[in-house]
Amino acid sequence: MNATAGALPFQGQQVINYKRAFVFAVTAYMLVSMARIHEIVPQLGPLRLGMLTGMIAIATAVSAIRKDILSSILASPVTKGLAVVVLFAVLTMPTGVWPKASFNYLSRTYYNALLLFVLTAAVFADRRAARVIITALVADVALAGMYALLRSAPGRYEMGYTYDANETASLFVMTVPWAIYLLLTEKGLPRWLGMAALPVCAIGLLKTGSRGGLLSAMALVPFLLVLAPPKRRAQFTLLVVAGALVTALSMGEQAVFRLRKAFDTTEYNYTTRDGRMEIWKRGVSYIKGSPLLGVGIDGFQYKELQSKKNEGFGVRQAAAHNMYIQVAAELGLIGFGGFLAMLFGGQYSCVLARRRAKLAISRGGGPEAERDLLRANMAQASLFSLMCSGFFLSLGYSAMVYFASAVPIGVAMMGHGGGTPGRPIETVPQARLRGMRGWRSSRPVPAGFHGMSTPQQ
Question: How many CB atoms lie within 10 A of CB 271?
Fold first, then answer.
């Protein structure tokens, strides 16, 4: 097998080591399907990179991802939550507002996010592969930020034609923790890349003019400080203060005005039929009207057309502008429960990975264990930023959310439980997987992957 010649790291033996072809294929697919490199660099557009990179990633994954790795991904609470989402995406399709539109969305768009989810979870279980994909993501977003910085066109900046200005802002914010990770853990070019990406992301965020993105960034700052390891708290504080200064100094009058208007109850979002407040109210009514099966995946916008009355100026198709209302209205409350399980399962997986990394550090895990700790923290922060952005955007099936939810699975499988990485660890007994058992246990978290129980010796 190409994955590794030993057992998985959560079994207390060896670290996963994928072949380069698989790692580069998944990285390329991530750059296209989520980071939209072919839209940042328009010359790549005619190459149909989405189909090409997807096919190569699938072909290399067949031989690279072992059955035990795949079983661990499927056993994760994150994946189980996603399975509920997928199940109700299919079940609600015949009863939705427009079944054909729901089917087209499932078959032409949604599968990309699902494929990225599985590939990301697998790749992040390999430390070296995770380093490659993190570096590529930060480089891509830094390039987008440079375009935003250098552009002379008026208006708000947005990446290509897939992401609008608000989604572009979400991508900038979710990348900030990974830029910090490169700056604090890498040497040479990757460290310089992380250092350059932080101010570029901050300025790019302002260029988008996204109030939701700016509010998410403001929520991310204290979250990062709370997650900062004690030895790195001074570094984190310095980086956060520097980022805040760059953002404050770069804010023009228009950005300040837009942020102030977000809390102005006379603004259109509060007063008009197609403002966010009225859309959210209608979204809640859609949930009450069909709490079990919803209006079908991607059906919110068509339900809007169906529910509105033409008052002489036409009827506008509107998105939910809130991923929680979006998923609950489209997939029903059970599907929404699966969605929440996916998000909070990702947060919980990061918490367990952090505990295990701290245990590894106490056992002499060294710099590798410290990097595991910081990687778990940054994965949690990146997912948290999207959970905040989701209050203002329809990100329910976004590749960004699925990528950020999958990373904690790989991070949880990555830890070696202490001692020297890549070598057998006699002090940590092997364990077997038992799904979600132990999810609410108050016992100390074992060194192995969560949801596992130790057999009697």
Answer: 12
Please tell me the number of Cα atoms within 13 Å of 229 on its side-chain side.
21
Sequence-ordered list of residues with C-beta below 8 angstroms from that of 229, at least 6 positions apart, any chain: 370, 373, 374, 377
- Read off the pTM: 0.84
Q: Residues 306-334: pLDDT tens digits?
A: 876 665 555 677 889 999 999 999 999 99
d(CA 454, CA 448): 9
Distance of CA 114 to the CA centre of its chain: 12
CA distance 444 to 440: 11
The residue to which tokens 């809007």 are assigned: 304
Residue 427: what are its φ and ψ, rounded to 5°? -80, -15
197-206 tens-digit pLDDT: 988 888 888 8
Q: Are 385 and 395 in contact (CB under 8 A)?
A: no
The DSSP symbol for 19 reads -
Residue 18, sorted as left (phi over 0), alpha (psi -120 to 50) or beta, turns out to be beta
What dihedral do alpha carbons 85, 338, 282, 320 form, nearest 10°?
Answer: -60
**pLDDT tens-digit map of 163-177:** 998 999 999 999 999
Q: Any idea where the domains of the chain sit in the sequence?
A: 9-263+322-453
436: CB partners within 8 A, 6+ apart = 75, 77, 80, 451
Query: In the chain, how many H helices and how many E strands?
Result: 19, 2
User: What is the sign of the dihedral through the CA atoms of 414, 415, 421 and 427?
Assistant: negative
**Total length of the chain:** 457
Nearest CA to 356 out of 304, 421, 412, 437 is that of: 412
433 touches 72 (CB < 8 A): yes
Residue that wins the pLDDT comparison between 256 and 305: 305
- Integer angstrom CA distances of residue 14 from 10, 282, 422: 9, 53, 4
